[in-house]
Amino acid sequence: MNKQKKANIICIIIAIVIIIAGAIFGYIKGFNIELMYSNRQEIVLTHNATLDINKVKEIASSVLENKKVKVQKVGRFENSVQIISTEISDEEKQNIINKVNEEFGSNISNDDVEKVSIANTRIRDIIKPYIIPGVATFIIILLYFIIIYNKIGIKAIILKGVFIPIVVELVYFALIAITRLPFGRITSSIALGLYIVSIIILTICFQQEKEKLLKNNQKEND
Amino acid sequence: MKEKRLKLVAEILAILVVCLVSFVGVYGQNTNKIVNLVKGYDLSKDLKGYRELVFKVSDATEVLDSTGKYIGDTDIITDSSIERASYQKTENKVNSDESLTLENYKKSKTIIEERLKSLNVQDYNISMDTSNGTITLQIPEDEDTEHTISNILQVAKFEIRDSEDNSKVYITNDGIKKLSALYNTTNEGTTVYLQMEFNKDAANKLKELSTGEYVTKESKDDEEDTENTTEEDTTDENAVEEEVNMTSDEESSENNSEVTTETEDSEESETEEEQKKIVIAIDTNEMITTSFDEPINDGIIDLSMNQPSNEADKISDTLRSASTISLLVNSGNMPLTYKITSNNYVKTDITQDALQKTLIVIDLVVVIGLVLFIIKYKLRGLIACIAYIGFMAMDLLIIRYTNTQISIESLVAAIIILAINYTLTFRVLKIQEQDKEKRKLLYNSEAKSWIIKLLPVFIISIIFVFIKWAKIATFGMFMFWGILLSVIYTYLLTRDMLDK
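^ inputs. structure came back:
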């Protein structure tokens, strides 16, 4: 067994271990979904003067300790902010309003601020738009590989062509599940990038194999 | 040799100009302000901001007018309007308790999604609380946002009913095959039509209604049931008798100017008496009250939406409203009535600061790569660096002038493109180490090899460009222009600069 083969086997074993570990983690703990996609509660604070978003963020983080917090500007002007967290109790809401009033000299009333509960976006809804384009291009490219590189052997092309992109994506998602990195807007973008990179790598591999094969044939003919 | 050097200096100067235009901009006066005349970046919803809407299942009750006709609900009609117009509030909920099921919540969400796609909203995020049907929607903020919001929650209940008896509904949404907006231009001007295509059952019913068979059938049924029916003489005051052209599809092409009005000849009035007068309504909006002047045999009704006009804006507005009606009805009627409880424009949480930090990291990686070029290839490495920076500037200009949106996905595509161009530049530098005679051959084989290697990704990019989902389309656009520019730029400019 040459070095290349040994390295390949080690890589495959590591990938399988990561995928299994990721599946177990994902099953037990689930993904750490980004706040924008998870169950959350929101309040919007509006003042008649500018609200410094960083100060509001500080206040919200101090009141909503140990909870995911996000503060965003709302509206065209700088006088409204939206505080988002996994859960905001009535007491916490009152505390935030009091502290904001104290900090900015505003007169925001607790009754005027409505707490809005928002349901999570399902992972399948996040991934759904990527599936059809992903699968369609995957099939087209696989056919392209079969036509262009048929000399390498259709079995090898199908095996590598299907195996590599799928394994790359599975390892990526498994790593997200294991490391508890937030699953959100960037996740699917990187997955798309990895898909493209895996296709480039596959093409380079097939092209090299084809060139090698042609050289060998030429040598034999000579 | 001198000529070659001059050419190189000219190329470097040209790159410098492109870099200045792309990275710094071209400033000029515009209405007393100094502004950058170079087109700005078009940012996506994730990087700019979005409209966040919360839709709750309505708990409103029906509102009737003095004649007992349903005219809306308490969400739309305020108490003061009810009092002023002597309307009556009822106890009937617009959403009955039995209709508040998970199945209806899911169906409503699906219809909203379908309408968003039809309205060309390519980047949205939707979630639903399965316990109470509350839907949260995030859509991009643009000139069409208000139009989208005002339409996606329409119930779009389509009815063809008796003009005198609202309870007699002949055709509903179930009978519709397809609605479409069409236009026809004659010497008098352009007329916009709402074409209603019905399925087999509804088409048969329509034929019977238009030939008067349905009336005869109905009266026979009535006789059999020995029920005494008295026809109400009262006509609907609110129903507008419009001047419309409602003919079968075949006839409309022959004579579009034919108009059905109330003031017909006495002979025609006699025939009309035998026919049903019908109302075509969508929700509470009665679009037309009319009778049929010709039998409808093909199950298609062309409803003119305007008088023939030559005003482009007017035609375009009418066409848009006809298209909106058709897409709403085509997506099916909402099983539940929703109301908007929250409508906010939310600026992105991905701040300028965070974006800048990301760009600094990318730049740093690029700088390290370029420094490696200089260390390894000295002067040639430096020229390669200049060419590479020129490529970045050129790519960014192309992105702006081809209206490619910058999204998180396109930033990932940009990183891949930078890596591809770096590899190509590196290959050119490698070839430069060879003898002059060998170079030409190597360049040709290298170019061919890279085109083959990048072709699958290029195909993927082209497919992605045509996907109606902004995130994928922007990724595809970035990849498409990036690969195209990278190959052409490297093998024309970078190679030429390094070959001196």
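The interface with chain A takes residues 46, 54, 125-130, 134, 136, 341-342, 344-349, 407-409, 411-413, 415-416, 420, 449, 452-457, 459-460, 463-464, 467, 469, 471-472, 475, 479 of chain B (CB under 8 Å). Residues 351-498 of chain B form one domain.
thumbs up if we can close this ticket
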